[in-house]
Amino acid sequence: MTMPFSRRNLLLALAASGTAPLASSLTGPRPARAAIPAMSRTLCYIGGYNKHAPPGGAGNGQGIAIFEMNRVTGGLIPVSTFMDIASPSFITMSADSRFLYALSEIDDFNADHDGSVTAFSVDRTSGELNRLNVVSSGGAVPAHLSVHRAGHHVLVANYVGGSVGVLPIRPDGSLGEPTDVVHNTGPHMPERAEDNSPGNFAISDHSGSHVHMVASDPSGRFVVACDAGLDRVYVWTLDLASGKLRPAATPFINLIPGSAPRHFAFSKDGRTIYILCEQDSKVVVASFDPRTGALVPQQKVSTVTSYFQGSTLAAEILISPNGRYVYASNRLGDSLAIFRVGPDGSLTLIDEVWMHADYGRAMVFDPSGTFLYCANQRSDSVTSFRVNPETGALDFNWHFTAIGSPTTFAFLQI
């Protein structure tokens, strides 16, 4: 008589042949399994424009969207969205990842027509955001913010307000009212630079001071700001006790009129700064003295190849984790420029890659440096590229993340 097929009969047959587990494993208690550690997760926070932005800046975003990153493919999977915030067009994490700070690019926070900055605590288990408080940014329509290297202040660049605000960080991560607001002044500058590429009809607003980025140098001794309206790069020191900015020995340098310095990135040793100019889409390579804060331009190189003709506006600049390559994004031209860094810090343009989307602004590396992400404001999407650390090459991985009017990123590993 043939025995009916079952798991038990199969095991008994295997036991008879000497290939099955010991009988005690069939009838006795199962051995305890070794505990498997929980896999860590990588979360990506993305902000951008929503309907609460000033006229001309409104977008399709909902708030700060949280995604989980697939660390094998680079894909982003939606998790949740914090919606109760107006146009968080720039966000940043504290060094210990316990707090996230988001500006609101608005001009109606108070009677002074300021923008605002919101402080959040970050749940280290889920990644969810808990709002702590909201304060004035110290000027209208802020465009960038960063946490000072010492970790006690948030620095805010107020674009329309033409000012830099200093916000103290309280022990619980919330923010105090500005301890200092510095307004820049200078002569009226042209809308376009004299060294434009052929056919570039894009303009930058030079109606007055428009601070576009502010951050400390790697040592934390100095605070640097790009003023796209005055075509200057400013340098201050920050008194950590009072929260006041003091001009450096050389308080600013002038760049080419109309070039609109927008963002910058420092080399790891802090002795070279790469300044991205928006209007003429060029990078100024300058030496930086970590003792005095003095800036001396050494080179200027285009973010588009000599073949390109037409309108473009440069947006973001990054240095690769190994310091060997610099990347810049071009809006309108919809390209990513790849530069090789020379032994002296100079740049050589080695490639120009299509963004696969429209009006790419912010770029960011994931924490491992494996992928580069680009926020494409007008096409309501994020695209990503696998990074070759040896050659600097970017390989599009065909992952499109749908999100309204994205402009900024922050990552968290939990």
Automatic annotation (TrEMBL):
Superkingdom field: Bacteria
Gene Ontology biological process terms, A to Z: glucose metabolic process
InterPro entries reported for this sequence: Cycloisomerase_2, Haem_d1_sf, Lactonase_7-beta_prop, TAT_signal, WD40/YVTN_repeat-like_dom_sf
Alphabetized SUPFAM superfamilies for the sequence: C-terminal (heme d1) domain of cytochrome cd1-nitrite reductase (SSF51004)
Keywords per UniProt: Carbohydrate metabolism, Glucose metabolism
GO cellular component, one term: cytosol
Molecular function terms from GO: 6-phosphogluconolactonase activity
Record-linked Pfam families: Lactonase
Family: Belongs to the cycloisomerase 2 family.
Entry protein name: Lactonase family protein
Organism, as annotated: Gluconacetobacter diazotrophicus
Lineage: Bacteria, Pseudomonadati, Pseudomonadota, Alphaproteobacteria, Acetobacterales
